[in-house]
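Subject: Sanity check before I submit

Could someone independently write out the structure tokens for this chain? I want to compare against mine line by line before I put it in a report. The sequence has 97 residues.
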Amino acid sequence: MSDPIKLVRKGGSTSIYIDMSIDEDGNLLFSGQDIGSDPEEIFGDTDYEDWLTVPAAEKDRLLLALLEKHYAGDALVISTLRKFMESKQIPCSFHSF
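---
Independent answer below. Compare away.
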């Protein structure tokens, strides 16, 4: 299992926490927690939790869909992604001629 990545940390009358990680089976997990007045008004409890699981077999489809949404029409996508991957120490190979 990977260490959780903290996606959202929002304070206020309702605090919101959302993390993501990869479990031991390779599934992508999102877990959320809302604490405060909003869940109490809606659900009658100050704590609301939810989870989203993307099966390991579907992660590639999700990756492609997210990249398409974010980079469609971006002529610099290859150099942008290469720089991003290098900054995150994610191996990649780049070739040109």
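---
OP: Matches mine. For the report I'm noting this point. The beta strands are 5-10, 14-22, 28-36, 47-54.
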